[in-house]
Amino acid sequence: MMGLIIDYAYTRETDVMADNVERLLPAADQFHVLGLVKRCCDYLASGLDVDNCIGIRNFARTYFCNNLERITNRSVSGISDVFRISEGGSAFPFEEPRLQTQFLRILGSQNASYNNILVINVQLK
Question: What whole-number distance in Å separates Cα of residue 125 and Cα of residue 52?
Fold first, then answer.
């Protein structure tokens, strides 16, 4: 990681990729290389989807990436209208109970009207 940070310090360029962003962002944050932190956050924001938005949100909160956290919160709010509906499936966009709990907590903190979400199972005919 130090090699990437030093390269960035001299050239303002570095390769932020899926296999290094989780280590690079904390290292850049530790050494106060704010441009590289922003580049890492931009990379994470560009890859947001249903499967990773809560994980990226938690990562953003850990490293105080406020703008990335706002982006993920908007993403979670948008996902609240998109349900994975399958035969006997849950109305949640996430299968894992831990993610379902975090999902509801995020929605509840953003808008009080989400505090009383009714979850129903939908069966297609």
Answer: 30
Token pair recorded at residue 4: 């990437």
Does this model's pTM top 0.70? My answer is no
Total count of domains within the chain? 2
Query: Residues 68, 113: one domain?
Result: yes
- Tell whether 5 and 19 lie within a shared domain: yes
The closest alpha carbon to 55, from 28, 109, 18, belongs to 18
Cβ-Cβ contacts under 8 Å for 107 (sequence gap 6 or more)? 76, 77, 80, 114, 117
**pLDDT for 37-50, tens place per residue?**
999 999 999 998 87
Q: How far is CA 53 from the centre of its chain?
A: 3
